[in-house]
C-alpha cells in the first residue's frame, strides 16, 4: 500500500518540507507521495504529517478556525506519526511561554508533555546555525538552523530527549511524535526527513 505523507499548509514553511519529503521518499525508494494539507478532510487522508515552522500563534488560531486542530489532535493521539518543526513543535506542546512577553493566549494541541520557551535564543537577528547530534535516531551530526527557535526547559517522564544545544533541549520524541526546534528543511541534508518517512512507513505496516 502506498504511503501518503502530508505537510500542514495553514501557515509557515510548507514548500521546503514538501520538497524534502519528496527527496526522502525517492532516496528511500518507497512507494509514497507527499501533499500539502489544510482542511480536516485532507488531514484525515494522510499517514504521517509534518507541522512546519512559522508563527505558532497564527497557525494555532487559523487551525481552530478551519477545524484542523481538532482532527489533528485526534489523529496524533490515535498514533499518526507527526514531525513538529519549530512553531510546529510549539503547537504540539502542553505549555508554551515567550522568553520576553511570557504567557501568550494561543491554541495548542496539548499533546507533548514538554515545557517550552518560545524565542528562547532571541529574535530574528539572533538566528544561527550549529552542528548538533541526534545520536539515538542514527543521525550523529546535523546542521541545525535555528530561527527564532524555541527550547524545552522540562520534559515529562515518557519523553525521550534527542538533542541538546548549550544545555537547552532542542529535539524530543515520544512514540509517534517528534519535535525539533531547528529547521531541517532549510539544509540540503535530508536525513531527518528520511527518518520520519521511515517511521511513518514502519508504524503504518
Ligand atoms: N518564534 C516562532 C513562534 O514562536 C517560531 C519560529 C519558527 O518556527 N521558526 O511561533
Automatic annotation (TrEMBL):
EC number: 4.3.3.6, 3.5.1.2
Pathway note: Cofactor biosynthesis; pyridoxal 5'-phosphate biosynthesis
Gene3D superfamilies: 3.40.50.880
Pfam families listed in its UniProt record: SNO (PF01174)
Subunit structure, as described in the record: In the presence of PdxS, forms a dodecamer of heterodimers. Only shows activity in the heterodimer.
Any one cellular-component term (Gene Ontology): glutaminase complex
PROSITE patterns: GATASE_COBBQ, GATASE_TYPE_1, PDXT_SNO_1, PDXT_SNO_2
Protein function: Catalyzes the hydrolysis of glutamine to glutamate and ammonia as part of the biosynthesis of pyridoxal 5'-phosphate. The resulting ammonia molecule is channeled to the active site of PdxS.
Reactions mediated catalytically: L-glutamine + H2O = L-glutamate + NH4(+); aldehydo-D-ribose 5-phosphate + D-glyceraldehyde 3-phosphate + L-glutamine = pyridoxal 5'-phosphate + L-glutamate + phosphate + 3 H2O + H(+)
Active site feature: 86, 183, 185
Lineage: Archaea, Nitrososphaerota, Nitrososphaeria, Nitrosopumilales, Nitrosopumilaceae
Name recorded for this polypeptide: Pyridoxal 5'-phosphate synthase subunit PdxT
Record-level GO BP terms: L-glutamine catabolic process; pyridoxal phosphate biosynthetic process; pyridoxine metabolic process
CDD domains: GATase1_PB (cd01749)
Coiled coil: none
Family: Belongs to the glutaminase PdxT/SNO family.
Binding site for L-glutamine: 54-56, 118, 147-148
Keyword field contains Coiled coil: no
One annotated GO molecular function: glutaminase activity
UniProt keyword annotations, A-Z: Glutamine amidotransferase, Hydrolase, Lyase, Pyridoxal phosphate, Transferase
NCBIfam families the UniProt entry points to: PLP_synth_Pdx2
Signal peptide: none
